[in-house]
User: What shape does this take?
Amino acid sequence: MKRIFYTLIILLAVGLSSCKKGAENQTIKEFDENQIQGYILQNHLTNMQRDKSNGDTTGIYYEILSKGTGPVIDYPDKVSYVYSFHTFDNEYSTTDTIANHTNGFLGHVTPNAIQLSLKNIAQTKGTKVRLLIPSRLAFGRDGYFAGAIHINGNECLDYTINLIDQDYDPVKKINYQSLYDDISIQKYMAANNLTGFTKSTKSGLWYKETTVGTGVVPTINSVVGVQYTGYLFNNAIFDQQVNDDATVAAYSTSLYSVITGWQEGLTHAHVGSRITLLVPSALAYGDPASSSIPAFSCLRFDILLVSVTN
Assistant: This one.
């Protein structure tokens, strides 16, 4: 009887040891899969599908929110997309889709999970997709810590990506970037309670002369003296030239040397006018991103037209 008792104790100890060893030796793929499955259940994400491209190896789950009708993309192609994401533990999130606007070659997109997802899941320009990204394809065991960004190690990510179609369709005669810009401008006006704007049907520029001046109107050949503030659509200031005296220009330039949005917009103003311009990306800086202006950014300018020299 005593021998049987000790035998049972040994078997129980071996069983507990095996369970512990199995948990400790869980692979990162198994760990990520368990995280994602738990997250799907907890958040009732019933439309999520597992990515089965490349032999079902990525572990990414996805839901196509809207399918684009643009061209199929490949690694040498330039792509533009806006995104937001948060970690599964909700300790970090980034939802500013103005700052979170990426433009570049698909083969250079990072992290690798986004590159794979755009190529194999989104596939076509204009597609909007939600992704659950395994930690091993995100920031891995060490996480990511830089400034205000604090992503813990082994954290899976919940991403939403809108892959913008920038192309012109010669059959439908549609410029998709212009459509996207106009939607962005109208959303910006609604969010900021901006009313009374006039839209140029030819260019897509929106403008409003908030204070009507009594002086001359500039032409494309004029030199203008202005004070102005330039905003991204998250209301961050990216450029400003102002002073306390409304009769003194803080900045002077020939009108033909500035962005197209200014060239058109200031012809709707008089000297002494204050005018607000909501500028589509094609009339601003378009493709090339800078340190302060993401690629394909619509912009707001509040301008005081101080002087005009013809």
